[in-house]
Specification:
9 helices; 2 domains; Arc Repressor Mutant, subunit A; about 230 residues; binds calcium ion; 3-stranded antiparallel beta sheet; 11 strands; alpha/beta; 5-stranded parallel beta sheet; about 40% helix; Rossmann fold
Length: about 230
């Protein structure tokens, strides 16, 4: 795995450590210690991922995240010094892809960077999980191809599939799925999710055959994505 990683971090020790580990893992780190330049740098350099500290001189991480989201869907991992903060941040819908709490091990950060890139990189995010069935997700166009068949998904179905497939084997309840796919305050019921999943499954079955179940119901809990036995 490779790519340019923008590290916005004002503690020189930490950013040095992170960039060493990132470089050792094949990435090209770009380090920035002042938040004020972050948004322009994202625009100009188009990094593949941004590691963003929250407390920064110049401009804070939260603001940066919001500003970047106005023009870019670059994956962003927010780094915070307080674990209690993460719940609040999630509620703010900043559009970050993951959160890491300080103190962290650089090794863990690199693992998260890789996981987020796998999940978000257009087209290749779930190859590992689906293998030769070849699920290809094109985030910019909301198009999903499975085994060469265009699934013709609605935006909601696409988001559901993308989320579930990006976290194979993990079980999500309906509330978690709703939170993930609806960013506005709309009222949706459990049955809405069930009905989207049902349609999504039907489209997958139409592409792969009736036995090909990729999205499984977990009784009493919710759903998970798991390619069946070959
Ligand atoms: Ca800081």
């Amino acid at each position: 795995m490779s790519g340019n990683i923008l590290v916005v971090e004002d503690e020189p020790k930490l950013s040095g450590l992170l960039s060493d580990y990132l470089r050792a893992s094949g990435f090209e780190p770009i380090c920035l210690s002042n938040g004020a330049e972050a948004v322009d740098l994202v625009r100009a350099q188009k990094p593949d991922l941004v590691l963003l500290d929250l407390m920064l001189p110049g401009q804070g991480g939260m603001e940066i995240c919001k500003d970047v989201r106005r023009f870019s869907s670059v994956p962003i991992i927010i780094v915070t010094a307080r674990i209690e903060e993460i719940d609040r941040l999630l509620g703010l819908e900043l559009g970050a892809d993951d959160y890491i709490c300080k103190p962290f091990s650089p090794r863990e950060v690199v693992a998260r960077v890789k996981a987020v890139l796998r999940r978000t990189q257009g087209g290749q995010m779930v190859h590992g999980a689906v293998r030769d069935r070849g699920l290809v997700l094109d985030e910019d166009r909301y198009r999903a191809k499975l085994d060469g068949h265009d699934l013709e998904l609605t935006a909601v179905e696409f988001k559901l599939l993308q989320f579930l497939a990006g976290n194979p084997g993990r079980i999500y309840n309906r509330q978690q799925l709703m939170d993930k796919i609806y960013t506005d305050e709309r009222i949706v019921t459990d049955r809405t999710i069930d009905s989207h999943i049902k349609k999504l499954r039907r489209k997958i079955e139409a592409a792969l055959g009736a036995e090909a179940r990729l999205i499984h119901s977990v009784y009493g809990i919710g759903y998970k994505f798991e390619p069946g036995p070959e």
